[in-house]
Amino acid sequence: MSDNTIYVDDYERSNRLNRRIATIDAYYLAIVANKPFTEYFGDTRFSNLTEFVAEEEKINLMDFIDSYEGQELKGIFHFKNYKGEMRLNLITLFAQKTSSARSEINIEMVDVESLANINELILDDIKKGRALFGLTKEYTFTYDMTDDIFKMCRYDIFSKDTLYKMSLIQWREFMINEGFIAESDIGLFKNLVGQILSYEQSFSAKITTSMRTQKQIMEKLIFTGMVYNKYNGDKIVIGRILTDENAHTNSNLIEMISDLSYDALTGVYNKKTITEYAKSLISANNDHKHDNYMDSYPTNLAILILDVDNFKKVNDLYGHMYGDKILARIGRKLKEIIGDGGVIGRIGGDEFLIILFDITDENLLRGYLRAVRTQIKWEFINDFADFNITCSIGSSIYPKDASNYDELFRIADFCLYIAKEKGRDRYVFYRKEIHEEAYIKSITSADKKNVSGREVNELRYISKVIEHFAKNKRQAISDLLTHIQETFNVDSVNIYRGENLELYRTFGQVLDNSSNALYAKSPGFKSMLCEKMFLESSFVGRVADVAPEFSEAMHQRNVICTIQIVLGNDMNNITGLLTIDKVGNAPQKWAEYEIQTSLIAAYLINVLIADEDRPYLK
């Protein structure tokens, strides 16, 4: 062996065929050895093992080998390799054979000090493989009969998402019952599952399914697979899911499917897909919680809502293109952190939704939350001199905290509000003994009022207001605004007017620092209007990055929830504003009829202005 040859127990040599194995006799002589074994010792053949062990360990080695009685035995000794280096090796004795002449023992050796190198090379190969799969958004599957787990994954360049993890039969029933398989191909699909279940050596099937598009588009996919022998000799089924190129002539089909499911900027799921996925997952758990259908499916889920702190400053100082790069980095980092443990989606400008699987206790959830918060912070630690990009996270757990998606989302959103309120760069997960009272106060008023037919009553009242308005416009508007203040349980209804948007009329409480509404002329406030002429916010603290002047004004007034409606029709020069404000520290989502009634009030004020050419009310 040449002097420039470097020995490393690398990934290639660590596979089953290249393990360092030999057979020794009763005199510790290697009578049979494979090539990796002889290479390690410098191509020395038929040598006594005691020649290479450290001198002070020679007797211990012989005692160790002599003590072998047929059961696998392990020990650690120093051996001199072909370079003359003393290296620590793990020795395994196994599979004793008995010949007519003497006892023979199989021996395997592993250079312990090289395991770190092996691990790095294996991880590097795994990352390269994932990146290659990710270039074409590959879907793969595996099935292991020893634990009866079928697993399907989708690869991205920077991550791997686990889409299904359950028993094979449960996956078959789930795909059929949820409508992911075309009725015409159910027989073919069942046959495919049978081939996987029976460990058929190789197989291929063309199935019409909507599994890649979450039921949005049926497409022809080819499931192809084979039986694979693992390192330890166990067998599993592995396979790929390919598009049937002959089934479509549209060369943009893959891009179209990707656009339907994924956020182009960040590479995570879009809002529609992640929301529907979460709802279907929770629904499936609820529907089958009393049978064995979901035994191997994720049943303990966590909902995480993540909001990027100081993102508005990035857009303001560096532009939206740079802001997009920040979001893309966050998407990649989240996929790296979460890995197979869940799925990620982008649900708003700088908001992400994460669904975590198999969260069996708060410590496990806390570990994920801490990892996300810390690694997002460190991702941008040296990017900006005057501020830091961090994140705030709110979380809830299914089924501990709630059994339906909407309620889980509301709880997580409430926890996010607490994280923001406490100063950002932190996480809060729902704990009943701490948060229940405040959360109950924040529960959507619509949920409570709808039960009593509040919407119907409101419609009846509005019809009377319209009748009254035809007779006495000013009095009708005044009565309506008083009604809103008293019935909707708001603290203050205000009208601002003029170039300086000075306070003109208040119904209810006069708020601190509410002499004007000049914040309505700020770019941030106008951007939130989005040409709708109004905005509603259940928690104004959430918009601090987008509209800092508006958020600060609400903070000075102690307003937590508000509806803001522009009076007139000039978005560029706002000279009138109607506000409906709730104060305190418990955010409450506005009911739809509350918003609509407020808009009707603003409409009637605009009619009054146009008819009388005189502003507002006496």
Automatic annotation (TrEMBL):
Signal peptide: none annotated. InterPro entries: DGC-Regulatory_Protein (IPR052163), GGDEF_dom (IPR000160), Nucleotide_cyclase (IPR029787), Rev_trsase/Diguanyl_cyclase (IPR043128). Residues 299-432 form the GGDEF domain. Transmembrane segments: none annotated. It comes from Lachnospira multipara. This is Diguanylate cyclase (GGDEF) domain-containing protein. It comes from the Bacteria.
